[in-house]
Design a protein that fits this description.
The protein is 23% helix and 17% strand. It is of the alpha/beta class. It binds 1-deoxynojirimycin. The site of 1-deoxynojirimycin (NOJ) has 8 residues, from loops.
Length: 557
C-alpha cells in the first residue's frame, strides 16, 4: 500500500508506530458458508466493523493449506489457502478491501516448521539420500537406542520422533506432526524468503513471525539443563532451561536476513513471537547496522501481577530497556517533541490466541484499565479480536478440548480453546457467527456481550475501545509523544505523554475504592477521557477523585 506521504517522505514516522493492530483468528471470526468455521469471505464481510473501531491493521493467523492439527500452524503449502478458509482469490479480495479502507494486512508466517504432510517433508523422509533430506533436523538414535537426546517438545513428550522408513529421528519443537525445518541449510532459508516474496507480491504489508526465537537448535545436541525450581506442578516442557533449543545466536542472523529480504522491495513490517519476558527482547531489534524485527511482541501488561509498584516497575523497565523514556519537556536535555530515537520501538499486546483473555486474567474492571494503558503507553498497540468486547473465554473441559496443547498436557490449565471461542455478533442464532454448528462453543453470556448490543451502549467495553482509539489518533502525544513522569501513590499509577507543547497525564486507580490524585506541581487538569461512561467533573483544589477501577486521561494546562 502506498504511503500517503508519498515516496521520499522518510521524515514521517512509519505507519506502524502509532498503529492499532487487531489480531484476527480466522477460524473464530465469521463463518460465511455454514460449516461452523470462520473463513476469508466471512472476514471480508466484517471489515467495516474493524474500520469503525478505528484499527489500522489486522494480523491474520494462518490460513495456509493445513491438516489443522495445530489449527493452521502446521502448514502443508505455504503459498496456498486451506479450502475451509476460501481461496487465493478470496485472499486477494481481502487485501484489496483492506487497502481500500486504509487498513493493512500483517500475515502470520510460520518458518520454524511445516506439517508432516508438506511435500518438503514427504521428500525429506523418503530416503536418507534425498536432496531435501537435510531440509529437516535428522539424527541417529542415542547410545541406548532411543531418541538422540532428552530434548522435550513445547507440547510435551520427547522432541524426537522415530522414522521407521529411514531409521533416524526427526526433531519437532511442537507436535510430532510439525517437523522442524533445518534453518542451518541455506536452501531452506532461501525457500522461506521466497514465501515472503510470494505474499508481498499479493500486497501483504508485513508478517508476524511465528516461534521466531526457536529456529535453531544446538548442532552438537547438548542437553538442556533442568530448571532448579521446577517441580511436579511445572508442565514438563518448562522443567528445563532452554539453553540449547531456544535463543541460539544464529537465529538473530537468520532473522536479520529475513528482514533484508522483506524490505528489498519496499517497507514491510516484521513482528515476531519471542519470549518477551526477559531483557533479551532487546536483541531481537538488532541495531542500525543490522536491523532485525521492528516489533518483538511484548505481553508484559498481561503477564505481570497487577500490584501498583510491580506494574510500574514492569512498564518502566521495558521502556528503559528500549531507551524509550523521557525527556520531560522543559527539563535539561529535553528536545522539542518526541522521545528521540529509542533503541527499539515499544509495543504492547493484551491478548492472543495463545493467552487467556485479559478480561479473564484481570477481571472485567481491570481489563478496562488495561485497555487504557494499551492505547496510551508509548508504542504500537495490539489486541486480540474479542478483547474489545471484554470476552472472557469459554470454558472447555479437558476431555472435550480441541487444542493439542491441552490434549497432550492435561491438567496444567494450558487449554487455548477458551480464548478461541467464536465472536458473538448479534442476537441471531449462534450469535450470528455461523448458520451451522460452531467449531468451538460460544462463550456463556454472549447474549449480553455481543457486538450489536455493545455498539448501542456507551458504557460498553466496545465503546471504550472506540473512544480510546479515537483519542489516540487525535492526540499526537499518545501516538508519538515522549513518555515520562511515572508515579505510584497508594493504588494510583500514572505517567505523562507530551508532544509539541501539549501535555497529557494518564492515571489509573488499581483499587476498587475511590482514590484522590493530586498532581504534584499543582497544574490545573482537565478531563479528556475516563474509563467510566459518566465521569465526575474531576478538577478541584482538593485534587481529582477517581472512582474504584477508574482510569483517566487528563490535559495538564
Ligand atoms: C506459536 C503459535 O502462536 C501457536 O499457536 C502454535 O501452536 C505454535 N507457535 C506452534 O506453531
Amino acid at each position: 500500500m502506498q504511503d500517503p506521504a508519498g515516496p521520499g517522505r522518510s521524515d514521517r514516522p512509519p505507519w506502524w508506530q502509532s498503529a492499532v493492530i487487531c489480531q484476527v483468528y480466522p477460524l473464530s471470526f465469521q463463518d460465511s458458508d455454514g460449516d461452523g468455521r470462520g473463513d476469508l469471505p466471512g472476514l471480508l464481510s466484517r471489515l467495516d466493523y474493524l474500520c469503525e473501531l478505528g484499527i489500522d491493521a489486522i494480523w491474520l493467523a494462518p490460513v495456509y493449506c493445513s491438516p489443522m492439527r495445530d489449527f493452521g500452524y502446521d502448514v502443508a503449502d505455504f503459498t496456498g489457502i486451506e479450502p475451509c478458509f476460501g481461496s487465493l482469490g478470496d485472499f486477494d479480495r481481502l487485501v484489496q478491501a483492506l487497502h481500500e479502507r486504509g487498513m493493512r494486512l500483517v500475515l502470520d508466517f510460520v518458518p520454524n516448521h511445516t506439517a508432516d504432510t508438506h511435500p518438503w517433508f514427504v521428500a525429506s523422509r523418503s530416503s536418507r539420500n534425498h536432496p531435501q533430506r537435510d531440509w529437516y533436523v535428522w539424527a541417529d538414535a542415542g547410545p541406548d537406542g532411543g531418541p538422540p537426546n532428552r530434548w522435550t517438545s513445547r507440547f510435551g513428550g520427547s522432541a524426537w520422533e522415530y522414522d521407521a522408513g529411514t531409521g533416524q529421528y526427526y526433531y519437532h519443537a511442537f507436535l510430532k506432526e510439525q517437523p522442524d525445518l533445518n534453518w542451518h541449510n541455506p536452501e531452506v532459508r532461501q525457500a522461506m524468503a521466497e514465501v515472503l516474496r510470494f505474499w508481498q507480491a499479493r500486497g501483504v504489508d508485513g508478517f508476524r513471525i511465528d516461534a521466531a526465537a526457536v529456529l535453531a537448535e544446538d548442532v552438537k545436541l547438548r542437553e538442556d539443563p533442568p530448571k532448579p525450581d521446577a517441580d511436579g506442578q511445572t508442565p514438563e516442557p518448562e522443567r528445563v532451561e532452554r539453553v540449547y533449543t531456544d535463543y541460539r545466536p544464529e537465529v538473530l542472523d537468520w532473522l536479520a536476513e529475513l528482514r533484508r529480504c522483506a524490505e528489498a522491495d519496499g517497507p514491510s513490517l516484521l513482528l515476531g513471537e519471542v519470549d518477551g519476558s526477559g531483557d533479551r527482547i532487546v536483541d531481537f531489534y538488532g541495531d542500525a547496522g543490522r536491523p532485525i524485527l521492528h516489533l518483538p511482541l511484548n505481553y508484559r501488561l498481561i503477564d505481570t501481577d497487577w500490584q501498583g509498584p510491580l506494574l510500574r516497575e514492569t512498564v518502566e523497565h521495558y521502556l528503559t530497556l528500549l531507551d524509550a523514556l523521557g525527556p520531560e519537556p522543559g527539563t535539561a536535555g529535553a528536545r522539542q517533541g518526541g522521545p528521540g530515537k529509542p533503541k527499539g520501538w515499544p509495543c504492547w499486546a493484551v491478548g492472543s490466541h495463545d493467552k487467556p483473555r485479559v478480561a479473564r486474567t484481570l477481571g472485567p474492571e481491570r481489563a478496562r484499565l488495561a485497555a487504557l494503558l494499551l492505547f496510551t503507553l508509548p508504542g504500537t498497540a495490539l489486541f486480540f479480536a474479542g478483547d474489545e468486547l471484554g470476552l472472557e473465554g469459554c470454558p472447555v473441559p479437558s476431555e472435550q478440548s480441541r487444542d493439542p496443547f491441552e490434549r497432550q498436557l492435561p491438567g496444567f490449565g494450558l487449554n487455548r480453546d477458551p480464548q478461541r471461542a467464536p465472536m458473538p455478533w448479534s442476537d441471531a442464532p449462534q450469535a450470528g457467527f455461523t448458520t451451522g454448528e460452531p467449531w468451538l462453543p460460544l462463550e456463556p453470556g454472549h447474549e449480553q456481550r455481543h457486538v450489536a448490543r455493545q455498539q448501542r451502549d456507551p458504557a460498553s467495553m466496545w465503546s471504550l475501545y472506540r473512544r480510546l482509539i479515537a483519542l489516540r489518533k487525535a492526540e499526537a502525544a499518545l501516538g508519538v509523544g515522549s513518555c515520562f513522569g511515572f508515579f505510584t501513590a497508594d493504588a494510583l499509577l500514572g505517567f505523562q505523554r507530551a508532544w509539541a507543547g501539549r501535555r497529557l497525564q494518564v492515571v489509573v486507580n488499581l483499587a476498587g475504592t475511590p482514590q484522590v490524585h493530586r498532581p504534584d506541581d499543582g497544574r490545573p487538569a482537565r478531563l479528556l477521557l475516563s474509563t467510566r461512561p459518566d465521569p465526575e467533573a474531576p478538577g478541584s483544589s482538593e485534587g481529582i477523585r477517581l472512582e474504584g477501577y477508574e482510569g483517566v486521561v487528563l490535559v495538564l494546562d
